[in-house]
Amino acid sequence: MRLEGVLFFPVTPFGPDGEVAEQVLGRHVDAGVTAGAGGVFTACGTGEFNALGPDDYVTAVRASVAAAAGRVPVLAGAGGTLPQAKAMARAAAEQGADGLLVMPPYLVSAPPDGLVRYVREVTEAGGLPVIIYQRNNARFSPGAVAELARIPEVIGFKDGLGDLDLLQRIILTVRETSGQDFTFFNGLPTAELTVPAYRGLGVDLYSSAAFAFAPEIALAFYRAVTTGDADLTHRLLTGFYKPLVELRDQVPGYAVSLVKAGVRLRGLDVGGVRAPLVDPAPEHVAELEKIIAAGLEIIAR
């Protein structure tokens, strides 16, 4: 599996009854793929992985796979307790997912050897290509990533930690032992803000939460970065992404809640977020609307 372009992390819509709105999710994923996403990561962080029950998860993966219709790879989140992660890996395979994003284990912090065992067992359970997700309590050592990279099904590493010194050492170690095919990508929240820094390490691929509600802005930024349009890159960073990050940081959980609010603002009713997240306050939604308008104005010039 080869990932390229802008990676799309759809939200998980909930209907008035509180259940996953499968048809709405299908429209959301179809619109993203049609717009030009390079891959779909469903039931992951932006998709409220933390709040999905087993049936919710199956519904989300099934709807995403059907909507993508083989046009781009669909990867599903799998994590939490080891039995839960293994059950999700099997369910994702049964629903036709192309791969897994292995999320951090539940609650505990663990040494690298334990994380290696966790990823190995989840990989074996699903039999799908796997991307490791480094974030918070899942902090991998260079040696641990190199060991996992030797497993044929483990194809990539998503960094959501932002420790560039550690990431550089991981990249160098893996490249020395496993070659150039292993994929690294920037998985920080609102990753575009740190794209220039990651590109300095040779990590060009990144996830885009903003793509879920402003695909035209996300794609314009991607084109600007990859073609060397420094002026447009700068204008989008200062006029859209920086204000978005500043708004995101005002309330814990807004990295997800604001994305869902943005999708609603752009015309698709995906419902609100599940507890413990909270929906954005009205004044923050109004501010988000202005930020989106500013981004659209920048790319229209």
Give keywords:
301 residues, alpha/beta, TIM Barrel, 11 helices, globular
Structure description:
This protein is an alpha/beta fold and 301 residues long. It has a domain of 209 residues: TIM Barrel (Alpha-Beta Barrel), CATH 3.20.20.70. Helices cover 49% and strands 13% of the residues. The chain contains eleven helices and eight strands. The protein has an eight-stranded parallel beta barrel, surrounded by five helices. The radius of gyration is 18 Å and the shape is globular.
Per-chain topology:
Layout: E1 7-8, H1 22-35, E2 39-42, H2 54-68, E3 74-80, H3 82-94, E4 99-105, H4 112-126, E5 130-134, H5 142-149, E6 154-159, H6 164-178, E7 183-186, H7 195-199, E8 205-208, H8 215-227, H9 230-248, H10 254-265, H11 282-300
Parallel strand pairs: 1-2, 1-8, 2-3, 3-4, 4-5, 5-6, 6-7, 7-8
Helix pairs in contact: 1-2, 3-4, 4-5, 5-6, 8-9, 9-11, 10-11
Structure summary:
Helix content is 49%, strand content 13%.
Query: On the 0-100 scale, what is the average pLDDT?
Result: 96
Sum up the overall morphology in one term.
globular
Distance between the termini: 36 Å
Rg computed from alpha carbons, rounded to a whole number of angstroms:
18 Å
Looking at CATH, the homologous superfamily of the domain at 7-215 is Aldolase class I
Helix content: 40-55%
Order of helices and strands: EHEHEHEHEHEHEHEHHHH
Strand content: 5-15%
Count, helices = 11
The SS-based structural class is alpha/beta
Give the number of DSSP strands: 8
